[in-house]
């Protein structure tokens, strides 16, 4: 019975009067249908636009040294240009050579880096995610199992052996050292902190049998130098640079090399001025037309510098706001029949 006498105008502020007419009741109807309702047109712009502005501003506050030539060149030390300090190293490189080739790349910072600085190395045109490369590893060998070390898994074929000697995986083994040049011209070495996880050094990677004498442990193994560092605790498989074994998804990628930690709140981590990057050139890339580079940047709670996320949020919020205004105008001034009642 209640449904048969329902009039839609009562919910819009109108009440019925004797004789069949209606009058406008200014008083709000105490109904749950009259409570404020959050809609997509109001919530989405209010969320996306402020969030996008915050992400964009925060991203721009992150400092990143890009060097000359744009984002992908950064501190490029491939050594293919005639003006490159690493030209001789790239042209004279030989796997059989025991002589290390070094080159120095000068650069300057126009603004100081205040917080912790992350040093990355980058490679281009290197397909580390290739199926054969991903499968060509023996986790038992990397975990220090003597049996796997001498007899690698068949998954490592056809590169499991060379001249009947087992091949141990190679890593990106360029050595990078950073120096600050003070106003007097003195070179001051910047300390670089390791980045390997504790599980990398104590669980995932281990030296064969825990043998402290790595000379005998790796004797007769092909294509691997266990003396990767002057620090005896950072050699063999227990090495910071084995982060290389985490497969990159794209042919152009960057991997963390070291961290430059801030010492105090008074002096910047990297002050404004001149620097020199000393590179020990051990990893050739010219054979596959690759390039090598170094990146210096800071990070925030949202990660590395990336303005695109903030721009995407602002764009989506603006589109939602624009569509909301269009729909509001249509709702306000469009053709609408206010006199239709629900039939009995």
From TrEMBL:
Q: Where is it mainly found?
A: membrane
Q: Which GO terms describe its cellular component?
A: apical plasma membrane; endoplasmic reticulum; Golgi apparatus; transport vesicle membrane
Pfam families reported for this sequence: CDC50 (PF03381)
Q: Does the keyword Cell inner membrane apply?
A: no
Membrane topology category: Multi-pass membrane protein
Compartment(s) of residence = Apical cell membrane; Cytoplasmic vesicle, Secretory vesicle membrane; Golgi apparatus; Membrane
Transmembrane ranges, per UniProt, are: 308-329
Write out the entry's keywords from A to Z. Answer: Cell membrane, Cytoplasmic vesicle, Disulfide bond, Glycoprotein, Golgi apparatus, Lipid transport, Membrane, Transmembrane, Transmembrane helix, Transport
Task: Give GO terms for biological process.
Answer: phospholipid translocation
> InterPro entries in the record, alphabetically?
CDC50/LEM3_fam
What the record says about family reads: Belongs to the CDC50/LEM3 family.
Q: Which PANTHER family match?
A: CELL CYCLE CONTROL PROTEIN 50, CELL CYCLE CONTROL PROTEIN 50A
Protein's UniProt name: Cell cycle control protein
Give the species this sequence originates from. Salmo trutta (Brown trout)
Upper classification of the organism: Eukaryota, Metazoa, Chordata, Craniata, Vertebrata
Gene this protein is translated from: TMEM30A
């Amino acid at each position: 019975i209640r449904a048969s006498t329902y009039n839609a105008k009562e919910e819009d502020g109108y009440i019925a009067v004797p004789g069949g007419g209606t009058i406008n009741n200014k008083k709000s109807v105490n109904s749950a249908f009259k409570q404020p309702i959050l809609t997509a047109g109001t919530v989405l712009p209010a969320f996306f636009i402020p969030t996008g502005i915050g992400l964009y501003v925060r991203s721009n506050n992150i400092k990143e040294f890009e060097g000359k030539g744009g984002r992908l060149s950064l501190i490029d030390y491939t050594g293919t240009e005639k003006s490159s300090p690493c030209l001789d190293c790239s042209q004279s490189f030989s796997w059989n050579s025991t002589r290390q080739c070094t080159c120095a790349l000068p650069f300057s910072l126009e603004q100081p880096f205040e917080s912790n600085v992350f040093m990355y190395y980058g490679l281009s045109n290197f397909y580390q995610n290739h199926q054969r490369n991903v499968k060509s590893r023996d986790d038992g060998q990397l975990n220090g199992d003597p049996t796997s070390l001498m007899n690698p898994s068949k998954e490592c074929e056809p590169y499991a052996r060379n001249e009947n000697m087992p091949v141990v995986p190679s890593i990106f083994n360029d050595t990078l050292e950073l120096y600050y040049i003070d106003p007097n011209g003195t070179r001051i070495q910047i300390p670089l902190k390791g980045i390997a996880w504790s599980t990398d050094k104590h669980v995932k990677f281990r030296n064969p049998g825990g043998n402290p004498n790595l000379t005998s442990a790796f004797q007769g193994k092909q294509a691997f130098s266990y003396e990767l560092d002057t620090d005896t605790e950072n050699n063999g498989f227990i090495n910071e640079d084995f982060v290389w074994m985490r497969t990159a998804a794209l042919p152009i990628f960057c991997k963390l090399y070291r961290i430059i930690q801030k010492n105090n709140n008074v002096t910047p981590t990297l002050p404004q001025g001149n620097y020199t990057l000393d590179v020990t050139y051990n990893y050739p890339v010219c054979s596959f037309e690759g390039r090598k580079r170094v990146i210096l940047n800071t990070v925030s709670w949202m990660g590395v510098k990336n303005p695109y996320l903030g721009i995407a949020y602002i764009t989506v919020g603006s589109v939602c706001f624009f569509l909301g205004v269009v729909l509001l105008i249509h709702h306000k001034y469009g053709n609408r029949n206010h006199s239709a009642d629900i039939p009995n």
